[in-house]
Design goal:
476 residues, alpha/beta, Aspartate Aminotransferase, domain 2, binds pyridoxal-5'-phosphate, 11 strands, single chain, Aspartate Aminotransferase, domain 1, seven-stranded mixed β-sheet
């Protein structure tokens, strides 16, 4: 392809992208594809000769697009969002065109310095205290692993990096039973072993019970373990439950534990000052992560990771072979030393575009609307005699089930709700996912897709009620 052709196809594809996003409602939000359906259409071997772009684009439309789940569809209420937005997409295009690998200051000074400033903006946006320093990681999973590794090194006086675990302390790591699976993964990867993870009970609202945490820490100390790190959930994945950071933080301080706060989804909610109660006690935290790539209109991947002691982070990861030495040395940030990977994408650009495009007030307005629609939706559930709200709604995720009069058995209700979810997702109009809370099959509805309107939420509720009544009829 020469530059002229690139220009031609570039224009053509931008037109296609605008059309796609404009007409996205015409697609089924969840791919209605059977396993193997896509791969069966793909040749077993790569083409010997290069193919014309027209053929490649035609196959994208014919083969790939029908197998996509449309995460930017306003009927997307599943998992947590992975939002994009027009400014974010434009920035990603520029990033792709420049194709810079931003591992060190010298490999693109602007990428490093923009990241530094945009992370300062982001800290202010969510109300973090001024003593946190930010760095962009790919995902919250990686950020949490960085916290476990930094804590491991700091508390072992950086010995495990040198000598491995041999003969050292037996560490214990804490989180609630509702905490995200990425913590268990990080415990495994960091070499602690899954048995080192203590899952602490939660209260009726699915937030950790601080007294239970303290009791477990005491027990571990008596048994010769070194309590190392507590990962508090600010918005669990199941129901967006908020661990009480103040009480948890005081316990961490008393027993000298590292406190990491996982606010992957909920962090965006902190843009609203009235939601800042969720991080009361943040002064006790050592590290904090949230994902602008979830609810903050920024293309995946972009995870904002904040640390109090950047020295511990850098000392955990830094390595300086001859071929990476640069003359700027310590005057500048070399983000390759602030995490696991060497090579880094230029992620700050899209975040900068997004924050500048919406402004603080624009972001607040959108997030506040999502929170309000969620409150209204939850009120609708509570007012409906045949539906049941299963968890508090601090943000924009509603956990509920259909529980029509006359059906009391848990298993029967679980099956009915699983069928309801299947039926809803089969309509192609909305996409919802589920979790289990206290063994109860729970339907989750997450509001917050970038283009979503209040009418989308209202129509979803109508569709849910109609479909539920039909499923019940089929049961009887
Ligand atoms: C989504 C989520 C994660 C994982 O996020 P990734 O960026 O995909 O790794 C971690 N913790 C919580 C609470 C989440 O909701």
């Amino acid at each position: 392809m020469d530059n002229k052709e690139f220009r031609k196809y570039g224009h053509e594809l931008v037109d296609w992208m605008a059309g796609y996003l404009d007409e996205i409602r015409k697609y089924p939000v969840k791919a209605q594809t059977k396993p193997g359906e896509i791969i069966a259409q793909l040749p077993l071997s790569p083409p010997r000769q290069g193919e014309p772009m027209d053929a490649i684009i035609a196959d994208f439309k014919k083969i790939i697009l029908p197998g996509m789940t449309h995460w930017q569809h306003p009927g997307f209420f599943a998992y947590f969002n992975a939002n994009n937005s027009y400014p974010s997409i434009l920035a990603e295009m520029l990033t792709a065109a420049m194709g810079a690998q931003c591992m060190s200051w010298q490999t693109s000074p602007a990428a490093t310095e923009l990241e530094e400033r945009v992370m300062e903006w982001t800290a202010k946006l969510v109300g973090l205290p001024g003593d946190f320093t930010g760095v962009i990681q790919d995902t919250a999973s990686t950020a949490t692993l960085c916290s476990l590794l930094s804590a491991r090194e700091k508390y072992s006086d950086f010995k495990i990096n040198e000598k491995g675990f041999a003969g050292g302390n037996k560490y214990a790591i804490y989180c609630s039973t509702e905490a995200h699976s990425s913590i268990e993964k990080a415990v495994k990867i960091a070499g602690f072993g899954r048995e080192s993870l203590r899952r602490i009970d939660v209260d009726k609202d699915f937030a950790i019970i601080p007294a239970a945490l303290e009791a477990e820490i005491k027990k571990d100390k008596q048994a010769g373990f070194l309590p190392l790190i507590m990962v508090a959930a600010c918005g669990t994945t199941g129901s967006t439950a908020v661990d009480p950071l103040g009480e948890v933080g005081e316990i961490c301080r008393r027993y000298d534990l590292w406190l990491h706060v996982d606010a992957a989804y909920a962090g965006t909610g902190l843009i609203l000052p009235e939601k800042r109660w969720m991080i009361d006690g943040i002064e006790h935290a050592d590290t904090f992560v949230f994902n602008p790539h979830k609810w903050m209109f920024t293309n995946f991947d972009c995870s904002a990771y904040f640390v109090k002691d950047k020295g511990a982070l850098i000392r955990t990861f830094e390595i300086l072979p001859e071929y990476l030495k640069t003359k700027e040395g310590k005057q500048v940030n070399n983000y390759r030393d602030w995490g696991i990977q060497l090579g880094r994408r230029f992620r700050a650009l899209k975040l900068w575009f997004v924050i500048r495009h919406f402004g603080v007030e624009g972001l607040r307005e959108k997030i506040a609307a999502h929170v309000k629609w969620a409150r209204d939706f939850a009120a609708g559930i509570e007012a409906a005699p045949d539906f049941e709200l299963l968890a508090p709604v601090p943000l924009s995720t509603i956990c509920f089930r259909y529980s029509p009069a006359g059906i009391k058995e848990k298993e029967v209700l679980n099956t009915l709700n699983a069928r309801l979810l299947e039926a809803l997702n089969g309509t192609g109009k909305i996409y919802l996912t589920h979790t289990k809370l206290n063994g109860i099959y729970t339907i989750r509805l997450v509001i917050g897709q970038t283009g979503q309107q209040e009418t989308d939420v209202k129509e979803a509720w109508e569709l849910i009620r109609r479909t539920a009544a039909r499923e019940l009829e089929d049961t009887l």
